Amino acid sequence: MVTEMKIKKNKSFIDKHNRCGYFFCLHWIIGLAMFFVFPLISSVLYSLSEVYIGADGLTTTFVKLANYKNILFDDAYYIDNLKTSVINMLTSLPIIIALSLFLALVLNSEFKGRLVFRAVFFLPVIIAGSVTMTILQSNYVDASLFTVSSGAEYTYGSLIDFDAMLSELNLPTAIQTLFSDYLANVFNLVWSCGVQTILFLAGLQSISSQLYEVGKIEGANRWEILWFLEIPMLRNVIMLVLLFTMVELLTSMSTPVMEQITSTMFSSQIYDKSSAMMWGYFIVAGAFMAIILFAYNKLCMKRWE
């Protein structure tokens, strides 16, 4: 009898705890339904309809898969932009993962001024969407911002002009263009490693110091500690970084598909074909993400457990 009373008290406490949890999540659930689920359903309906905006407002006519056929077979740029976006993600992903892991290993080591360097590497996270980053990535600066008392105006090129630097080497035009693209991409990739570096750094600091001591006692060198201790212990963090980086790369407004949808389709209020483009991009990108995560789980996660 006493045992049954204890079970009932435990159940009532658990139920009360669960109700409090649902209550605290209620505002998030309402926001999710209003600002995410409803627009998501609307975009699906728009992709299957012909959307017309007139004097009476927005009207839709169901056309099944006509919009998808149009973007796949009639649009001259969508398929090429889709390929370019996916290829850019596949080529940038391993570079960002390796570079952020290297930076985390460096910042996790003991040296003077470590906190200062950690703050410096966290700066991309702070100013990535700021005006400073916009100026750094722009091809020109407004000349009106740089005027002198005599009234003369000076135009400034990009703050880091790789073409001007490489032109001093008198390289062939094709090689100069290739090196310029690589240098510009390296600059952007370094600025894309802020959050990933912090995640790896947090994962490295969670590894017990006793494991490092065991490795030293066994005679493991730094390379062996990296591959047989640190990377296996970071397997869950690597999964998180992979997922975060892929989403960040694929949803960036600088990708060709996102530029086409936002700058061309949305600005022209073509909501039916733009919704079809977005969902087509989501399906293709989601398929590649699923393949990468599945391969990582089978080839790495199972091996490191």
Task: Show the helix and strand layout.
Blueprint: H1 2-47, E1 49-54, E2 57-62, H2 66-74, H3 78-108, H4 114-127, H5 131-137, H6 162-167, H7 173-190, H8 194-205, H9 209-217, H10 222-233, H11 235-250, H12 256-266, H13 271-304
Antiparallel strand pairs: 1-2
Helix pairs in contact: 1-13, 2-13, 3-8, 3-11, 4-8, 8-11, 11-13, 12-13
Features:
single chain; 305 residues; mainly alpha; 13 helices; 2 strands
What does this structure look like?
- This protein has 13 helices and two strands.
- It has helices at 2-47, 66-74, 78-108, 114-127, 131-137, 162-167, 173-190, 194-205, 209-217, 222-233, 235-250, 256-266, 271-304, and strands spanning 49-54, 57-62.
- The model is unreliable at 139-158 (pLDDT under 50).
- It is mainly alpha-helical.
- The chain has a two-stranded antiparallel sheet with strand order 1-2.
Largest sheet: spatial strand order: 1-2
The dominant shape is globular
Taken as a percent bin, the fraction of beta residues is: under 5%
Number of helices: 13
Topology order in helix (H) and strand (E) letters:
HEEHHHHHHHHHHHH
- Largest sheet properties: 2 strands, antiparallel
| Class based on secondary structure composition and strand pairing | mainly alpha
Helix content: over 70%
Give the strand tally.
2
What is the C-alpha radius of gyration, as a whole number of Å? Answer: 26 Å
Please mark out the parts with pLDDT under 50 across 5 or more consecutive residues, or reply none: 139-158
Please state the average pLDDT score. Answer: 78
The CA-CA distance between the termini, in Å, is 45 Å
